[in-house]
C-alpha cells in the first residue's frame, strides 16, 4: 500500500498511512468554561466520586479545560478534557456548542469518535465540508428525539435507489448512562451497500471526503431536576469531551503515499504517477495521454506522457482524440515546422525524408505547381506543361511560366533551329529567317522551307534587286538523265536549293559510296558532299543507294564557300557537272553502277507548285520576272553586257527610245545619230533641247538641206538648186507664219 512503484519500477496504487487525523490539530470550540472562572459539580456516582464541586479557570494552567485537550495524547488513567460552560451559564437547547476541526486538506474519513468525560448528550450531530469553502453537510445525527430535534426519522437503513450520501439519525448512543466515559463512534461507511465496492463508487468516495468536521452539541441529557433551577444542579450539567479522534487517510486518490506541507506551507499529497494537485486529482501538464483516474488495487491509472515526438513540451487532453485513437494528448505549439496531434508530421507545405529528419519547406513554385504540398522527397506535382523538382521550369517546347502554366512554343518548324527560349518564348532562327517565331524570311530572301538549312533562299534577281517572292506560275519538274549531259547544263537557276539525286546499284553489303559533286560555270567552281543518303543497306542484298546533293551554298562541306548570289550565278550558267568517286572501291565484292541522275527543277505550270522560283520586284530601269531585262527607256551600261550588267537611261535626247541591249537610239522627231544628236538631212534646229519640234524642215526649195549659221542664227540652204538664192530664215519664218 505504501510504495507507489513496485520493485520492478511499475506503478501501483499507493496510499498514505491510516492515522488519527485529529491528533495534534487544534480544534475550535464555540463555548469553553473558565471565562469567567466557574464551579462545576460532577454528578453523583460519576467515577464513584462524591459530590465535590471543582473549578474551571481558563487563566489557570492547572484548572483550564480548553479545546487543546480534545486532540492531545489520550491516556485512559490520566485523561484531559475539554469542557463547556455549565447549564448555569445558559448552555442547553436551543443553544448549541460547536467544535470545529480543520484538517487542512481533503481526507478520506473512516470514523469519527468522541469520548465523553461526562454522560453522552441527548442530541448532537456531526457535519462535514467536502471541500474548502463548501457548505456544511450533515454526516450523522445522534438523538433520543430524532424527529423532534432534527426532523429526521430514527434508524439506519436506506431504501432501494436512495442516495447513499444520507445522514442517519440514531438514538442508540443517547442514554444518560453511563454518567461518564461515554463513547460514540461514527463509521462513515456503515450501513451503505456500495462500501463493498468502494473503488467503483464515486458517490461514497465523495461521502468519505472531508476537509473540515463540525460537532454540534445540541441538547444535554438531564434527570429532569434542572427545571428547579437549583444552581448546584445546573452546575452539574455541561458538555465535556476527553478525546476527539478522526480515523482516515490523507486523500491522494491512490497516487501518493505521503502528505506534507508544500512550498506554500499547506498540507498536500506528495504526488507520484505524474499527477499533481493537493489530492493528486489532476495529471501533470505534459501527462495528458489519457484522462485522470484514481489509482485502484487493480490499476495504478498513472498519468501517461503526451507523445509530441520531441517537438513540444505542451499538450492538452482532447476527449475526441482519445476516443478515436486511444491517445488523448494533443500537443501544442509544435516546433521545427511539425504539426499534428503528436507533432508527428510536417506542417502543410513542408516535407522530410524520414521521420527523424527536420522538416523543410517544399518551396513548390506557386505558378508551376498543382499544389504547394510536395511528397516525402520534396518533389512537387507540376502542371502539365511544367517540369523540375520544384516545378519552376517549362517543359521543353514550352515557355513563359505563369499562373496558367507554360505556353507552348509556336516556333515555325521550317524557320527555327529548335525549341523556344523557356523564358522569352523567342525561337532560334535559321540564318535567313527572322521574327520571334521564325516565320519570316529576312529581307533579300524568300521561300521558307523546312529542308532548307538557311530557312529561306537568297533572292537572285541577277544582282539587281533584294526584294523577291515565290513565283506562282511555276511547277516542279525533274530533269532525268539518259546521260545526255546538255540537259543538266546551261541555266539551272531553277534548281537552286533543290536536290540532285544520284542513284547507284550497290553490291551486297555495299556502303554509301564516297561520292562528291563538282559544279562549274560562270568562272566559278564548287564541290558538294552528299547531304542525304537512303536505300536498303541489308547485307547480302543488291540494293539501290540514293545520294542527295542540295544545290545550295549552305550544304554540308560545300567548298570553297561561295556567297548565295555567286552560287546562283554559277547555276545560271552551268558548264560542267562532274560526279566523282574518290577513295577505295566501296566493296571488294562488286562494282558500283550509277543508274540515274535526277535534278529537281521547275518550269511554267501550276502543279505541283515550285515556290523556290523567285519573282523579283525590280527597281527603276529593270524589268522581267528576274529583273533580267532593262525597262523601256533603259539600256545596258555596257552595250550587250548581258543580264548582270546595270541598266541606265537611254541617251536619245528625248527623241526616241533605245535598244536595251545595244543602247542604239531609235530616233524620231526628224533626228538621227546614236543619240539622236542630229537633225535629219533637210531639217534644221537644235536637237539637244528635247522637244518634238527641235528639227524643222529646211525652208529650201525641194526641202533641200540647210544649216544654221552659228554667228547670227540664220538658216541658209546649203544645196540651193542652180539659179536660186539664199533666203533668210527670219523672213521666211515670218512668211511661213
Ligand atoms: Ca484529552
Can you list the ligands bound to this structure?
Answer: calcium ion
The CATH homologous superfamily of the domain at 19-250 is called: Galactose-binding domain-like
Total beta-strand segments = 50
The unreliable regions are 728-737
Q: Counting H and I runs of at least 4 residues, what is the number of helices?
A: 6
**Overall mean confidence score, pLDDT:** 87
Main pleated-sheet profile: 10 strands, mixed
CATH topology of the domain at 19-250: Jelly Rolls
Q: Which CATH C-level class of the domain at 19-250 is it?
A: Mainly Beta
Helix content: under 10%
* DSSP strand content: 25-35%
Descriptive notes:
Among the domains are: 19-250, Sandwich (Jelly Rolls), CATH 2.60.120; 474-616; 621-696, Laminin, CATH 2.10.25.10; 698-737, no CATH class. It contains six helices and 50 strands. Strands 1, 2, 5, 6, 7, 8, 9, 10, 11 and 12 form a ten-stranded mixed sheet that branches. Strands 32-39-33-37-36 form a five-stranded antiparallel sheet, with no helix packed on it. The radius of gyration is 67 Å and the shape is rod-shaped. Calcium ion binds next to strand 12.
